[in-house]
Fold:
Amino acid sequence: MNCEEITPDQCVIRGADESDLVALLRIERECYPFPWSQQQFIEELQNRVATLLVCEIENRIAGYICYWLIGAEMEILNIATAPTARRRGVAVRLLNEAFSRCSEVGLSTAWLEVRAENRAAIALYQRSGFQKSGIRKGYYRDGEDAILMNKTFIN
Structure:
């Protein structure tokens, strides 16, 4: 994959299934110091309130998003882009697809936690309309704080 921004026809976003687990686990390990396990992904695939979407470029999974939708509230649990596909708009496309799918049922708010030191992710979320709304002290296993961010949708 090259470093140019992807176009809509290059990016296929679809629901994930168990056949995607190897690719999801690879990306997860490349992106996070405490990656989700295979069992955690399986549990989310089986969770009735969870949605797990993947973005494919050239028939390879370039990123994914996992979120819960309960009523009109979306919680983003996890989003990751393969290092070889970063800075190409994958995460933005995944976020926008998730927002679009959730808006069909009257999405009112979305929220997430992000590592306080993850400046790139915080900037991405701010560009996508999220605002910082709090801090969760020592939230992560290694003691790092989480920034709580939310986004309000007008219906």
Remarks:
- The CA atoms of residues 50 and 62 lie 20 Å apart.
- Residues 90-103 form the longest helix (14 residues).
- The chain is about 30% helix and 35% strand.
- The longest strand covers residues 60-70.
